[in-house]
Amino acid sequence: MQGLHLTADLYQCAGDRAFFVDEDALAALCRQLTEQSTLTIVGEKWVTFPEYQGEPGGVTGTLLLAESHLALHTWPERAGVTLDVYVCNFSSDNSAKAQLLIDGLIEAFKPGQVQRNNLLRGDEHGPVGSGELLLENLNQHAVYGFRFPERLLAKQTQYQYLELLDSPELGTTLRLDGCLMTAENEEFFYHEALVHPAMLSHPDPRSVLIIGGGDGGALEEVLKHDTVQQATLVDLDGDVIEVARKHLTSINRGALDSPRAKVLVGDGAEFVRTTEQRFDVVLLDLTDPETPAGPLYTIEFFESCKAVLKPGGAVVLHIGAPFYEPEQISSMLNKLGTVFEQVSPFGLHIPLYGAYWGLVVVSDSLAPKTVAAEVIEQRLVDRDITDLQYYNSEIHGALFALPNYYKNLVPELVTTEA
Ligand code: SAM
Catalytic site residue 285? Predict the structure, then answer.
């Protein structure tokens, strides 16, 4: 059982056109490279697909090997190929032969770009770790991941692919379009950091707006402040809210149905553009810029958020991982600096996001670094906020004490007075 599974996805291929559309030519190439690698062919099957949009169809083929298999699919209309070589290493180690075969095929197709994966399969001592290993990109070259023994739910909503997974460490975890959003055992890192620094720097936050945040975690933190008379949450995707109501109550503790909460389904940009309401704090609890939330990371949107702030109000948002996405952090802080007088970046390590994660409070007047720990402490007491797992009056200052590599991303903007 144990073996090595190599895959390669080839893009912008410049190899011989015959390899894409002529199954005899492709079969001959595969046989030749397989024999050169000294793997053993025990059977084969080839299929040519019908014409597609006036283009000849691609070819699907497999060579059955005594050591397992070679499978490939060509996509002439996209100059693409998917390769798959799996060898078992039961009686001997065939890894080098598999590598030789897939390298020979890649060379023959001459791709402009290649995405490779190497999987160790069927460990002789039983499963390595428990559950499905899900990886997430930190940037183009770095990934991190968690194992999830159980998949509780998966559905395509109108806007995104929604999954609920379960892990002994993280608990029930929400994932949208392959990105980890929040997890019941770990959500306090992000939600407490997103909400409390700004809310406690503000002397009397009564009206709060949350854009996104359909899991209800940020809303639950906002409602801990007894100064808040109404919190409005606007999430694009009603399915996220419904799944959160049913399956994420350990995160939102029913906040989505609080009498002090107004929960709306809609586009946050549209809401901010049209609302007559005004807010002391606006929290942007959105998916990343490369998702339907993209337009909510623009100067225009930041200006429209500023327009709905009451005097002394602030906006808070997450901006990415300073080490892995320095350009995104710089550009975001620069954009915010053209709209707001005070730009107060902060950060903390967020286990679920696999990195030290940047957030920022922006305002024309509120600067959290200037609010002393004693004031924060008193406001926690006055507002009777006791059940926090991450944030406290000392952490408040620590959050805004930036490592130099982060501070240096936009030195002229970082408000440094303490
Ligand atoms: N804590 C998470 C994070 O930091 O990555 C965000 C969690 S929350 C689930 C993200 C939400 O943003 C999603 O529910 C998604 O539907 C919502 N969203 C994306 N684009 C939006 C838009 N244009 N208006 C309102 N909500 C939006």
Answer: yes
Using a 10 angstrom Cβ sphere, with 0-12 exposed, 13-18 middle and 19 or more buried, the burial of residue 176 is buried
Position 142 in a domain: no
- Of the residues 237, 239, 280, 285, which is catalytic? 285
**Number of folded domains in the chain?**
2
Q: Output the pLDDT for position 89.
A: 86
- How much distance in Å is there from the Cα of 376 to the middle of ligand 1? 29
Higher pLDDT, 290 or 184: 184
Per-residue confidence at 412, pLDDT binned at 50, 70, 90?
confident
Token duo for residue 264: 């709306």
Distance between Cα 318 and ligand 1 center (Å): 11
| Ligand 1 centre distance from Cα of residue 146 (Å) | 21
Q: DSSP code of 291?
A: S
User: Which of 134, 132, 128 shows the shortest CA–CA distance to 150?
Assistant: 132
The CATH number given to whatever domain includes residue 20 is 3.60.90.10
Mean pLDDT of the 184-199 span:
98
For residue 354 and ligand 1, the question of a CB distance below 6 A is answered with no
Judgement on whether residues 324 and 198 belong to the same structural domain of the protein = yes
Which residue minimizes the CA distance to atom 8 of ligand 1?
213
Q: Is the pLDDT of residue 195 over 80?
A: yes
Task: Report, as an integer, the average pLDDT of 131-136.
Answer: 86
The closest residue, in CA terms, to atom 1 on ligand 1 is 181
The answer to whether residue 202 sits within a structural domain is yes
Residue 308 lies in a domain: yes
* Residue 136 Cβ < 6 Å to ligand 1: no
209 CB under 6 A from ligand 1?
no
Which residue, judged by its Cα, is nearest atom 19 of ligand 1?
293
> Does ligand 1 lie within 6 Å of residue 190's CB atom?
yes
What is the SS3 string spanning 77-118?
Answer: HHCEEEEEEEEECCCCCCHHHHHHHHHHHHHHHCCCEEEEEE
Q: Which residue has the higher pLDDT, 157 or 53?
A: 157
Asked if the model's pLDDT at residue 100 lies above 50, the reply is: yes
Tokens found for residue 319: 């901006």
Split at pLDDT 50, 70, 90, the class of 139 is very high
Q: Domain of residue 96: give its range.
A: 3-129
Does residue 63 sit within a domain? yes
